[in-house]
Amino acid sequence: MRLQSMQGRIVRTSHQSACLQGNPLGDPHERDVYFYLPPQYDDGRRYPVVMMLAGFGATNHSMAAWSPWKPNTVELFDRMIAAGECGPAILVLPDCFNRWGGSQFLDSEGTGKYQTYLADEVFAFVDAELNTIPHREARAVVGRSSGGFGALRLGMDRPDVVSVLGSHAGDAGFEVSMRPMLTSAAIAFDLAGGLRTFADEVPQSGPQNATQFDAIFVLAAAAAYSPTYAPTTQAFPFAELPMNPSTGELKPEVWARWLEQDPLLRIDASLAALQKMSLIYVDAGNRDEHGLHFAARMLKDGLLRHGLPVRYDEYDGGHRGTSWRYEISLPQIVEALRGPE
């Protein structure tokens, strides 16, 4: 059992969101937010902020959860600061979980305005509550898997709020990483009796096997990338699948909507935003089960082609159990931010 105590501290609070109120899925608009305050926090200075986004099926509670066997991500960050291996910064762990297991951190008519929540509400809330440096040059956003996707898209879509991005095996390269999941998801939807039955039943108990996990992820992604919500129709679950669940056949017109959301394919259109970033950190394991190392390689190549400030790393490993990668990325990410003032 580990006995080392933290030098900094974690604060758990809650925030009432205006933009999530009345969301189509009926998910709560009051959300818990965790702050990590570094050991130096009470010295009267202001500190940079790193927003950390959870992967699909996880929450901010997951990232802050205590274990008797190993330090969590926040505790690792605390140890690095105490040891002088990383500059001090405030961590912010927001909650963007929804009925489907993850919002993909985007604004969607089918789920709610989660990107707006982060960009306009959470950062403002943090600046009002804590001794932050309230400028984009002192803010970063990082995440793993879907959280990495959310980080990339926040930088691409809202460069006014952040200047550093970190994507650990973030969702991208959908043709390689997501399209193979559609067949597995179609099997689960078919076995459940259709999309509506699956959407009614599986979120209550959670996915029970790998095909159900693929299916609920595809449903979550469809709700974010190809929503169908309209106040006049109320067509629950407010999402159009990119394949036919009875045959597994691709629906090209819906799949095209998905590809429009792919960070890899948005680089050119987002070039002006990405040029404002002081660092874009990208990594993935060399045997990622979803092929996200292929996506990361393509993303790195696309960013470098435009001369953008990319740091890329590929390590020996898969998609899961990789929170230790923050030991590598966070010191570099904090270094790229405006320091304490």
Record keyword descriptors for this entry.
341 residues, alpha/beta, Rossmann fold, 2 domains, eight-stranded mixed beta sheet, two-stranded antiparallel sheet, 36% helix, globular
Major beta sheet, specifics? Answer: 8 strands, mixed
In round numbers, the mean pLDDT is: 93
Per CATH, the superfamily of the largest domain is Alpha/Beta hydrolase fold, catalytic domain
- What is the count of structural domains? 2
- Which percent band covers the strand fraction? 15-25%
Strand order of the largest sheet: 1-2-4-3-7-8-9-10
Just give the CATH class of the largest domain: Alpha Beta
Structural class: alpha/beta
At CATH level 2, the architecture of the largest domain is 3-Layer(aba) Sandwich
Low-confidence stretches: none
CATH topology of the largest domain: Rossmann fold
Order of helices and strands: EEEHHEEEHEHEHHHHHHEHEH
Number of strands: 10
The helicity comes to 25-40%
Question: In brief, what are we looking at here?
Answer:
By secondary structure, the protein is α/β, with parallel strands linked by helices. It has helices at residues 60-64, 73-82, 114-129, 146-157, 174-177, 181-192, 195-205, 210-225, 252-259, 271-274, 292-305, 326-335, and strands at 9-16, 30-37, 49-53, 90-93, 107-108, 112-113, 139-144, 164-168, 279-285, 310-315. The model has no long low-confidence stretch (mean pLDDT 93).
Describe the structure.
The protein has 12 helices and 10 strands. The protein is α/β, with parallel strands linked by helices. The chain folds into 2 domains: 9-173 and 263-335, Alpha/Beta hydrolase fold, catalytic domain (Rossmann fold); 176-259, no CATH class. It has an 8-stranded mixed beta sheet, sandwiched between helices. The chain has a two-stranded antiparallel sheet with strand order 5-6. The two termini are 38 Å apart.
